[in-house]
Amino acid sequence: LYLQEPSNKRVRPLARVTSLANLISPVRNGAVRRFGQTIQSFALRSDSKSPGCAQKSCSRSAAPTPPKRRNSVLWSEMLDVNMKESLSTKEIKRQEAIYEMSRGEQDLIEDLKLARKAYHDPMLKLSIMSEEELNHIFGDLDSYIPLHEDLLASLGEATKPDGTVEQIGPILVKWLPRLHAYKGYCSNQLAAKALLDQKKQDRRVQDFLQRCLESPFSRKLDLWSFLDIPRSRLVKYPLLLKEILRHTPKDHPDIQILEEAISIIQGVLSDINLKKGESECQYYIDKLEYLDEKQKDPRIEGSKALLCHGELKNKNGHKLYVFLFQDILVLTRPVTRNERQAYQVYRQPIPVQELLLEDLQDGDVKMGGSFRGAFGNSDKAKNIFRVRFQDPSPGQSHTLQANDVFHKQQWVNCIRTAIAPFQRTAAAAELKELPELSEEAEENNPSAPNVQAQKRQSTVSGVAEMELDESTSECCSILDSEEAKGAKTHRTSSGHRKTREKQLSGKRKETLV
């Protein structure tokens, strides 16, 4: 019985396992995705298929696949032994940093050309997207190729026969200001990404991009990764320059010039970020929809900066998309109009100068909107805060919940930063008005009897509050005129102050009655 047991088992999988040896690619980093798909196709294949199919599948998967990343070679690896020994360790690191910048420019140029050749042109030729849509997504990407080719050529001219570069500072100081050309491209990225995501809903576009992603030339990068490469390259320049400066000797002529180059690139990036922020702000303003004309506020249309935005939940568990512009807080509901994202303004926007923030503790508020939460302790909300008008008359208060502690703290910090200037202004105004509001000097002021006489008349006439305010203002003006004559008469003890306040409050109560 024991000898007959294997006869009940299938012998066919043994042949399959032995055939898997042919699937292993000789390349170091084989394509895991393709290898897994081949195994799956073998396991699901029926016995009725001919050996030709197996041979075809094996030959297809046996094709070598390039590695996902480019093979990077260090500058020091290209030197001969004698040259390497003649240079100090610091100089080798300096040349490595310069070579990394040069190699990065070469890679960037290749990627920009690839984006045009492998994505833009085929989609235009196959009518997968219109020329207008492609221009909106790709922008003027081609125009930046000569810009980076110029830097690469300048670095090549500065390279000696032994592979070293003596001075790079003057080249960078002359070239870096030209990066201002990226303002338009970076400003358009948000709208370009939105259009690309919308077009991905089209089956033809989705199929084309998936085929490109699985092709060796893409290095497993999607289209947006190629379109975002210029932006990621821009933010690397300060790091590369600082690395070169760090390994440059203090007596080298490049020291001061590199410091100037770092200042230039930081200024360029600041200008690009500012322009990009304004474009992002206008992009979301254009997508706002108002249910009532009263919701429209000129501070929304005039905003140039978007301090913070993201998804939050209200007390009922409904999702809101909140925008904190520089001067106003706008709560919205995400909606879809003709397959395009829009934001419907929810309630009345709150100007920053009238905004009050309350940082709530976990469990202070019970959140609704969840059927499951009604039967457990999950209704005790976490990561919550409240925003409302300082004046309670509008009657609007919003309890908002973030996804986690980190996002809550981001919102709280942004709101506090936005309202801080107005709080300081209000505090300064209160300090200025403090001497005018104090009335304890009336008894010691020689002109005070006139004020009290007016108060008595106002009580008799029945229009006490109005005339009391007028008399107080007159008292303040007389007080200001007499201030230089007798400063000592303005000093009173705390007992006099409390007595006077009680008298005034009593008079006001009597008048109101």
Describe this structure in words.
Residues 305-420 form the PH domain. Pfam families: RhoGEF, SOS1_NGEF_PH. Residues 93-275 form the DH domain. Residues 451-461 have a biased composition (Polar residues). The protein is of the alpha+beta class and 513 residues long. Among the domains are: 71-283, Dbl homology (DH) domain (Dbl Homology Domain, Chain A), CATH 1.20.900; 291-368 and 381-426, Pleckstrin-homology domain (PH domain)/Phosphotyrosine-binding domain (PTB) (PH-domain like). It is built from 20 helices and nine strands. It has helices at residues 12-19, 32-44, 51-61, 81-86, 89-125, 131-138, 145-158, 169-175, 183-187, 189-199, 203-214, 223-227, 229-234, 237-246, 254-286, 298-301, 405-437, 448-461, 464-482, 494-512; strands spanning 288-289, 306-313, 319-325, 328-337, 340-345, 350-351, 355-359, 384-389, 397-401. Strands 1, 2, 3, 4, 5 and 6 form a six-stranded mixed β-sheet that branches. A hairpin with a 5-residue loop joins strand 2 and strand 3 (319-325). The longest helix has 37 residues, at 89-125. It is globular. The model is unreliable at 1-7, 11-67, 369-377, 434-494 and 504-513 (pLDDT under 50).
Key phrases:
Dbl Homology Domain, Chain A, PH-domain like, 10% strand, 9 strands, alpha+beta, three-stranded antiparallel sheet, 513 residues, six-stranded mixed sheet
Structure summary:
By secondary structure, the chain is α+β, with helices and mostly antiparallel strands.
